[in-house]
Amino acid sequence: MRNSLNGRGSGRVVAAFVLPVVLALGATPVLASPPPPALSGGEVVPDRQPSTTQDGVALLRVVVPDQAAVDRLNALGVDLAEYRKAVDDGIEVHAVLSPQEARELRGQGFDVRDAVPGQAAFAANQAERRTAMSAAVTAAQQNDTLTPLRAEWFTSTDDRRFLSVEVKSSATDAETVLTATWDSGRGTPPDSGGTATLSRLTDAGQYMYHRFDYPLPVTQAPSRVTIKSSRGGSVTVPVTKWLGERRTPPGGHYVSDFVDHYMDPTEVTGRITALAAEFPRITQIIDLPYKTNGYRRAAQAQFGTGAASTFYVTSTAYGSQGGNDVSLALTRPEAASSPLSVTVTGKDVVVGLATDASGAISSTARQVVDALNANTAASALLTAATYRGDQGGGLVAAAPATRLTDGLKAPQSVSREPFQMKALRVGTKRGGPKVGVFLYCQEHAREWVTPLVCVETAERLLRNYAHDPRTRRIVDDLDIFILPTSNPDGGHYSFYDYNMQRKNMTNHCPAKAADPASRNSWGVDLNRNFSVGSMFDGYLGASSDCTSGVFAGPSELSEPEDRNQVWLTRKYPNIKFAMNTHSYGGYFMWPPGAYKEAGRETLPRTDLGTENYFWESSRHILSAVQERRGTAIWPGRTGPVPDVLYSAAGNSADEHWYNRGIIGWDFEVGADLYDPATKRFQPVGFQPPFAEGHEEAMEFSSGQIAILEVARAYSGDRRRPGSELKVTGRTGASATFTFTTDEPANVYYTLDGSRPTLNSPKLVAAGTREGAQRITVDRTTEVHWFSVDIAGNVERGYRPGGPGANYRRQRVEVRGDR
């Protein structure tokens, strides 16, 4: 709020506004501009401010000797900003003044100085606005270019059909509106299926593309969709089918459905241990080297009612190791003027509160805390702290003996000691060079369905090995590692204490955040604690706040749970594939998983061949998920993590991909369920009723089996890829081309007639969720190239590092160059 002259608002329409008569003594009309008066310090203020101010009005510094002078300015009706600062010669305030008002204030003896820096921003803002509006008008007069990214139909639960469309516009402003229209199948009118407006997707302030927020239900599978822009752009593309590829069915005696209730980490670990004992020829248990902190906490008690008079104590031993046996009493002595005292008998601590001359308690929370921490016998049992950093100046009341407690509610069958994490290794040739696959679940404690997925997969592999040929081939040809619970301590806490626990149980909080009421906020987000693309390297999606749900920990890989994953993938370098199973939402994702907020700079994108391999494998994996009950993971929820979800700094998939080249996916089980009554998708949550959780475990275990099939196909891939050069456009002065491959593969090429090698330029993606780049040349060019698939097979058997010349070559003609 600012005061205004004569009680008017701060807006002005006349520059030479005359101050009230009390200030402008005998004021006469201004007929000409007199020379500018000198200011204190020799500065000069022109009658009219530079053109960067509005109507010559500016925000000027005024220095007055005292508050009385400020009051006088207010009484005169001067438009003062809510700003004041002590300076050597008085008080600096800021006033909105025209040139004449400034002169008249100086005539009254006020020290009016120069303008406040930065006020030229008004004109700059206006100019920027005019430029933006002009650009918008120009854009409105020009057709934008629409780049189709994806257009697919698919079936989901109850065989219902849905349509998903993604399109990028060259006009990135928020005023650009895209509308999709589709047919009802081949040969039907173009608009017979329906029409809908797409939503504009932005992330970290950057335009990504347009899409439907949710797949749209359709009665018939469309064959083509047309997208039109409010800017005039238009594109028509075919609609392809997403998922539903034909997969080889399991044998007639294939058995599944081995989980019938939610299981805590102790039960899950016992389950895989029992499986290893039952199938010793094709399994082994791997004890991971780093034990967790354990399902344990220090015992605590809190005293007081208001923040200033409240303090809490924490046992030095864990509750299960004697902390729960410690007690604290606050007593009021009978005598007046008693000193504050601390006595310890065994594990019982008694604080004798101080009293004043009248016998009233005079001890403050801070004094009690200091006394407890200074007493050698008491500090061996407990430490004390004021409430969340408060000064603790409030008086403490007497309290009976209170036993400290760790508050943990799990039955005694759940050990309070550091947890021995175990992985189940499955395979008949576990010591050889077989391709390894790492399946791990429950990094986040509250995701109760995920360990069931890993357990179900282990059961299927072992119990079908003897009689199902497909399972036998998987187990014989791969080296499989299954870690069903990656966060056992947090998992126990979620089951028995706080079901929404996401993190582990290790408390890294300082005293101001370690009181008993904060207990459900302690822990480290294990999927933010890895060393690649971490918060510590400036990536987005994690926090340094120890009570945040995405707390990254005190340092990279500070947590034993995560060091166990790194150890496993280093110990067994044959691991080439991985799957991290989370919930919920129905996502299927892969690296990169994080970006920096400035410029939305992601970790290095996978190359085009690997990206296409992720997509092609996804169809096989997600078709397996769909077989159970028709659940389709949407194409809009499939892709690199930042493209479809958010930035997750320090996640495990990035750790394994960038540090060890492990091709890794992330499942988010629990796809939204479509409600035909409301025609809306409904989320399922972290802990759905078990009937729903069971179905999720069944369908995503099928997805894990399909990942093993993908890995097996990779291990036996000896087929060489093929590629073609395709000219996509010509002008009189240029030609544009790209390459296509018959399987996911990278293309290396040269344009200068030299021999292509693995150091030559590599074909890249045209953009996020777009296809291959198009290369333009302005003269007739001899293009040399070769392709390499993900398994390392080279087109035509060409040896990039050798002397051979059996690479591909083609002449791209530019007409004007003839």
UniProtKB/TrEMBL annotation:
GO terms for molecular function: carboxypeptidase activity. It holds the Pfam family CHB_HEX_C_1. The keyword Protease applies. Transmembrane segments: none annotated. Keywords: Carboxypeptidase, Hydrolase, Metalloprotease, Protease, Zinc. Residues 797-818 are annotated as: Disordered. InterPro entries: GH29D-like_dom (IPR059177), Peptidase_M14 (IPR000834). Residues 386-711 form the Peptidase M14 domain. Its cofactor is Zn(2+). Belongs to the peptidase M14 family. This is M14 family zinc carboxypeptidase.
